[in-house]
Amino acid sequence: MDNNQLLPLLAKASYFLAAVLFILGIKRMSSPVTARRGIVQAGIGMVIATLATFAITGGHNLPLIVIGIAIGVIPTWIWGKKVAMTDMPQMVALFNGMGGGSAAAIGAGELLRFTSGVETPPLATLALAVVGALIGSISMTGSIIAWAKLDGRMDKRFTFGGQQAVNFLVFAAAVVAGAAIVFWKLDANLVVVFFLLALAFGVLMTLPIGGADMPVVISLYNALTGLAVAFEGYVMQIEALIIAGTVVGAAGTFLTQLMAKAMNRPLTNVLFSNFGGGGAGAEIAGSQKPIEASDAASLLYLAEKVIIVPGYGMAVAQAQHKIWELSQALIKAGKDVRFAIHPVAGRMPGHMNVLLAEAGVPYDLIYDMDDINPEFKTTDVAIVIGANDVVNPAAKTDKSSPIYGMPILDVVDAKQVIVIKRGKGTGFAGIENALFYADNTRMLYADGKEAANRLIAELKAIEGGGH
Question: What pLDDT digit, counting tens, does each position of 140-191 carry?
Fold first, then answer.
């Protein structure tokens, strides 16, 4: 067997090995215990697939490829090392957009190559090139808008009259242009028009979506990027791209369904309604009742069962380490301490789990919404730090609320609730939280890290005085 036969065979074997590592890696990422090993495995798979591609190209355009890899790897490596946990959702959204953009660029390159007349592609290959390019383009510009919203560079929602009709017309025009490329004429000008429409639709589709829906949007665009990569992998006949894209697309689709289920709404409602876009809801009676750290520490000292509910505010304050230190003090004092995580807490799926894992919180102390909700009725003190919309009882009681129908953590059922919050502002959905006005709720107004420090100090003072 000569080299011309051996190299393609080795490349296919390498792609198969890479695909196995991708699948095993993603499987391991489903658990915080094995996630780090999963990331390493998937990374090794990507290195193998890249080297195999180098081998079969025979060094064609090698300098450009190396330059491209350097431009992609070096800045993102530095950024990944320095990025704050509060900025992680923005980074995920932006990098996902880059993945979609890469798939779209591959589709553009293949379509423009086909227009040169050098090669006449089969109809199925041409169709998948168009579909992959469409999906990748939407994912890229949609992810960029999601990044801008998460990073505070754009208003949470942007709407105008007849917006859904305009969006539909732009999408329909993109589909028609794509169909014309496949069934009518492979023309470079038509390809350009097609891409402009696809990119515009990604922007228009994301503009009206409210902040509370960002976790769903991010997971949706992740699924679209995976599918786009799989389609373009078929076009280029690269098995690794087909398998990896299919796995990522399937995982992203499943996660999107879980996120939508966690909000008790179909995906169409997320994309085409005003949920999470702000709104007054019913007027809330009563007032927010402040509490001092010394009194809050006394409640914790007398409690037997404590549940801590983290949210994005904890990430902003970078308070996860201090909250875990506070939890350790309570555990040492004989308290039953648990953490409650809502599926859409934070700005991306799993955001709070990552923060707590970074702080060293044991996985067996972290409970999801369905498991922990029955426990609130027997909880002496629930501490809410930075969470807002996911603990708002208006989701169950106020039909005029924009978040009505979303399952929440039943924090209001606890005997006492301490909310650590910097001020009286609203959450990411832009609505008032009825929990903050409840009779059993007290507001500890402070930065999350500062509040945790004060509670730790007050607990030590109480314990010292008791001895």
Answer: 999 999 888 888 788 667 778 888 899 999 999 999 999 999 998 888 999 9
- Residue 59, number of CB atoms within 10 A of its CB: 9
C-alpha to C-alpha distances, 136 to 43, 65, 101, 121, 228, nearest whole angstrom: 22, 21, 6, 20, 5
Q: How far is residue 395's CA from residue 409's CA, in Å, rounded to a whole number?
A: 10
Token pair belonging to 318: 């970078």
Res 394: pLDDT? 87
Catalytic positions are 389
| Strand-pair partners of 419 | 384, 443
Beta bridge partners, 306, equal: 337, 381
Map out the domains of the chain as residue ranges.
3-272, 293-466
> For residue 120, what are the contacts with CB-CB under 8 A and spacing of at least 6?
114
267 and 220 Cβ atoms separated by less than 8 Å = yes
Which tokens is 425 given? 């502002």
* Residues 120, 117: Cα–Cα separation, whole Å: 7
Out of 31-40, 235-244, 359-368, give the one with best mean pLDDT: 359-368
Provide CB contacts within 8 A for 163, sequence distance 6+.
Answer: 204, 207, 208
Q: Report the alpha-carbon distance of residue 277 to residue 427 in Å, rounded.
A: 11
pTM comes to 0.80
Q: Does domain 293-466 have CATH number 3.40.50.1220?
A: yes
Tokens of 226: 């995976």
344 contacts 216 by C-beta, under 8 angstroms:
yes
pLDDT at 280 over 60: no
How many CB atoms within 10 Å of residue 1? 6
How many Å apart are CA 366 and CA 27, to the nearest integer? 20
User: Burial, 152: exposed, middle or buried (Cβ in 10 Å; 0-12, 13-18, 19+)?
Assistant: exposed
